[in-house]
UniProtKB/TrEMBL annotation:
PANTHER family: 60S RIBOSOMAL PROTEIN L22, LARGE RIBOSOMAL SUBUNIT PROTEIN EL22A-RELATED. Transmembrane segments: none annotated. GO terms for biological process: cytoplasmic translation. GO terms for cellular component: cytoplasm; ribonucleoprotein complex; ribosome. This is Ribosomal protein L22e. Signal peptide: none annotated. The keyword Ribonucleoprotein applies. Pfam families: Ribosomal_L22e. It comes from the Eukaryota. GO terms for molecular function: RNA binding; structural constituent of ribosome. Belongs to the eukaryotic ribosomal protein eL22 family. Keywords: Ribonucleoprotein, Ribosomal protein. The lineage of its organism: Eukaryota, Fungi, Dikarya, Ascomycota, Pezizomycotina.
Length: 126
């Protein structure tokens, strides 16, 4: 008698809902980061099942307050992928040299300025 193969419960589990927040309030208040352009970029670039522009009802992207973008995903969307897309947008807008993406807590990413120390001022003092 052949052994009976067990059926796996792959894809039959409960649907997961994840909430991510990208906080760009600091650079947005300095008028160097356009939050609405970033929201449009995410709508165009997020891939679902290998296709861009295929968000539908599975992912909702909205602005939540001053300089914050909220992403609610009803599928497997990783925070690392959002961080990657944020870095890609910063590189496209030539802001990657001044801003970095930092995870402040689970599901929350914040855009912060690099701590720049002016070496020119120190040389003038000598």
């Amino acid at each position: 008698m052949a052994p009976i193969a067990k059926k796996s419960a792959k894809g039959k589990g409960p649907k997961t809902t994840k909430k991510f927040i990208i906080n760009a309030s600091q650079p947005a208040s300095d008028k160097i980061f356009d939050v609405s352009a970033f929201e449009k970029f995410l709508n165009e670039k997020i891939k679902i099942e290998g296709r861009t522009g295929n968000l539908g009802e599975t992912i909702k992207i909205s602005q939540a307050g001053e300089g914050k973008i909220e992403i609610i995903a009803h599928n497997d969307l990783s925070g690392r992928y959002l961080k990657y897309l944020t870095k890609k947008f910063l590189k496209k807008m030539q802001l990657r040299d001044w801003l970095r993406v930092v995870s402040t807590s689970k599901g929350v990413y914040e855009l912060k300025f690099f701590n720049v120390v002016n070496d020119a001022e120190e040389e003038d003092d000598e």
